[in-house]
Amino acid sequence: MKLSDAMVDDFRTFVSDVFESRTEHISDGLAKEQMALCEKYAYLYDRTLNRATLAMDFLREAMPVFSWHKYQADPDEYLKRTIMRRAAVVAASSGDGAAAAEGDGRQATRAPASLTDDEIAEAAGREDDDSAQQSVIKKLLYRINWLRTEVGRVDCEGQRLYEQHSELTVSLADLNRRLSDDQCRSAGEIDRHKNELTVLRQRSADQTAIIDRLMETIQLTMQDKQPSSAGC
Predict the structure, then answer these.
(1) Which residue range is the domain that position 137 belongs to?
(2) pLDDT value at position 145?
(3) Under a CB-based contact definition with an 8 Å cutoff, are residues 15 and 190 in contact?
(4) According to the UniProt record, where is the region Disordered (predicted)?
């Protein structure tokens, strides 16, 4: 009886040490992993949001007025018109400064006799306007190309993060399933050993009863033999 109780206690201790500690370790590991993932995705979200904000600032600076419907209707033509309009505004402001600077230069240096001052100023203004317009157009085109590249990169990064999140979700589900299977198996083992313990206890009780009856029979037999021995 004591042996069977000790065996059951040892088995319970073994199950508790193996499965409960393992369950706690797995739960702690998964909790830490989830916290790390939350912090990582929060950081990536903030970084992506900051990049998107910078991209929007670049776009607003390059195109203060942007119509998405017109862009969808004819992207190339709309961008060309917008860039040319912006370039004309910048060139006009640059042309005023260039004309003023050229006017100051005329006072210090005289032009050749074949050209008048007005003709020289007009030619210089046209050259400055053309170079300024081309420079603005190139800058705007570079910014648009950069924005397109950035959009593609952000899409790829978002797709990669989505796939990674899906893989982690599948791994977590698999770990939970295996943990549930282990718990079910341990519960089944405990029930089986409880049943075996009940059977052993019943057998022990039956054997104890048999031993008690045998002891009573032996005592009665010995008592019956004692008078005959005394008479002799």
Answers:
(1) 2-222
(2) 82
(3) yes
(4) 96-115
